[in-house]
Amino acid sequence: MLVGDVFYHGIIRKTIVAFGSLFSNIQIERKMKDGTNAIAQTLKVPIAYAPKEKWIVRLDEDPTLDKQVYTTLPRMSFEITGISYDANRKLNRMNQLACYKPAAGATPASYTKMYTPVPYNIDISLYVLTKTQEDAMQIVEQILPYFTPEFTLSLKSVPEMNVVNDVPIILNSVSVQDDYDGDFQTRRFVTYTLTFSLKVNLYGPTDSGGPIKKVFVQTTGDAPALYTADQANPIATINENWDEDNF
Q1: Short-list 84, 87, 52, CA closest to 198
Q2: Fewer CB within 10 Å, N or C, the chain?
Q3: Topology of domain 11-209, per CATH?
Q4: Rounded to two decimals, what is the model's pTM?
């Protein structure tokens, strides 16, 4: 049974927010149809954490279904589709990370440690919904050149430990769905689905304590020496009360 103090570093949440921010400034251009190629309109493509189903987007924008305008396009959405353990990046679980913060004013010195992280892969699907192939290709073409097939971002995983991880974002596949079948009242949707894998490290709880000032060292056949850091120049002193049977 898992017991202990509650801990939460928010690593998964930070990763999802960072992923969505990568695509938050994508824009498309609409040109005049008079042959001049003049720009008639520039649209910023909104993005939100949501599934791609049309009725969910519609309910989110118009809960009472009173609006005369249908779902606004183009738009993008993304969602987590799975989390799996990555055994290829496994490290020795007994290793520890340590962070020492010296005393500052009235704040005493502190020593914080935690075990090495556990590697996991987060699978995310990014959906691009438009009403024409031209709009969809403009959006996709602004995304694909940055993934070869990975793009790496830095994430402050555990700020209190000064831990910063590089998170590779790997583009696995791109699929297209063009819903043009149906009667004249059925609206056309062009959907591009981009699947990604994010390689993250999940950390356990931290253990805080004071700095180590005294260390007992066992030497062969001798009493252990006591090394102290209380002085400017630490020296070794012999513990006269040392009992070999109880060491």
Answers
A1: 84
A2: N
A3: STM4215-like (3.30.2000)
A4: 0.73
